[in-house]
Write a structure and sequence with these properties.
Blueprint lengths: L1 H16 L11 E4 L8 H13 L4 E5 L5 H7 L8 H10 L12 E2 L13 E4 L8 H14 L3 H8 L1 H13 L3 E5 L7 H8 L2 E7 L2 H15 L4 H8 L7 E10 L11 H14 L15 E5 L2 H10 L11 E4 L2 E4 L4 H14 L1
Parallel strand pairs: 1-5, 1-6, 2-4, 2-5, 6-7, 7-8
Antiparallel strand pairs: 3-4, 9-10
Length: 345
């Protein structure tokens, strides 16, 4: 319980006083990643993109074939260029065309909500990313049979090189990549591309299993991820910047206090993280934990209408799928949780 008390006390400071950590961003590149769907990953990615753009120029990419983040960012507009179109020529060679020069969209020109901050550029996703794993692993197997570590490295860095070039062209300071709930393909390349991961974990049994699997894959030298890293000449796995527990307090009776079931899941998640201390930059992995609420109607409004939670106002009404939703006073706590998360990474 002492560890849980520490987490709850920190959460109380965040909700009551708007506590954030000083110091800015530790890394240049992040991926929001989970091996389980339905945990709020894309909503979190959208809001993190906004929070980061208040402090730094940020390049955001969607490598998930479901394209949920793209739907929020593009507001129904069909993109002229996608991440898939940018990756394929670099992966398969010039016979498949040349990589486009300009692959991102300036969000302040598409969403009013992103005006007034630093530059945020977005590389849209593509349903074609569903077929990307087979294309990637065919190339990797060919390189592996030739024992060509440099070729393997270049293939694993396909996304990293794409992001590097675009970030330089658009003068962005930080990257953020929204990944698929599946390891293969875009998610694999995202883990190779970034310095750190942000892991959303819902308070349920399947999410805890996903957390353990993810951390084990990053840590175990014999995991598929690390075996390919070794074949590429010894690439380092990304660090874990934050573990974001979502849907906290969904059944709570007392305001701003997680219910007993949520606390139990948080304690178990902490126990899992403590098995892999080398993946964290913190002395104690518990410092990487951030608790967030279920966001309720605010999260639905944010995703459906492309409005960051930070810009929602108490009392506002929004119509989503012909249902009228009102922003209640709990949004203030959500805003503080997201601001704290951005300050910790």
């Amino acid at each position: 319980m002492p560890i849980m008390n520490e987490v709850l006390e920190r959460r109380a400071r965040i909700l009551q006083d708007g506590y954030t950590q000083p110091g800015g961003f530790k890394y240049k590149s992040y991926a929001v990643s989970t091996l389980r769907g339905g945990v709020g990953k894309s909503t979190l990615s959208f809001n993190l993109a906004y929070e980061i753009s208040r402090h730094k120029r940020v390049l955001v990419a969607d490598v998930c074939p479901q394209c949920n983040l793209t739907e929020t960012m593009m507001r129904g507009r069909k993109p002229e260029v996608t991440i898939y179109q940018a990756l394929i020529p670099r992966l398969l060679g010039p016979a498949f065309g040349e990589a486009p020069d300009d692959i991102s969209y300036r969000m302040s020109e598409r969403l009013d909500s992103f005006k007034g901050g630093h530059r945020c550029c977005f590389i849209p996703g593509d349903p074609e990313m569903f077929s990307f794993p087979s294309q990637l692993y065919q190339q990797l197997q060919l390189a592996s049979t030739r024992s060509n570590a440099e070729y393997v490295r270049r293939l694993l860095y396909t996304l990293k090189d794409t992001m590097t070039i675009e970030a330089e062209n658009k003068k962005c300071d930080v990257w953020l990549i929204d990944t698929s709930p599946f390891y293969a393909g875009g998610t694999h390349l995202a883990w190779c591309a970034v310095e750190a991961l942000i892991l959303p974990v819902r308070v349920d049994e399947n999410s805890l299993e996903s957390l353990d699997l993810t951390l084990r894959m990053l840590h175990d030298k014999n995991s598929d991820f690390n075996l390919w890293n070794e074949r590429a000449g010894g690439l380092r796995p990304p660090r874990v910047a934050a573990i974001v527990m979502t849907m906290i307090g969904a059944r709570s009776i007392k305001k701003a206090t997680p219910d007993s079931a949520s606390q139990m899941y948080v304690e178990r998640a902490i126990s899992i993280a403590e098995k892999y201390p080398s993946l964290f930059d913190y002395k104690d992995p518990v410092e990487a934990f951030v608790l967030t609420d279920d966001f309720l109607s605010s999260g639905r409004i944010s995703g459906a209408q492309s409005i960051p939670i930070a810009q929602l106002n108490v009392g506002q009404f929004h119509t989503i799928n012909k249902k009228r939703l009102q922003v209640n006073d709990s949004v203030t706590g959500y805003q503080r949780e997201l601001a704290y998360l951005a300050s910790t990474i």
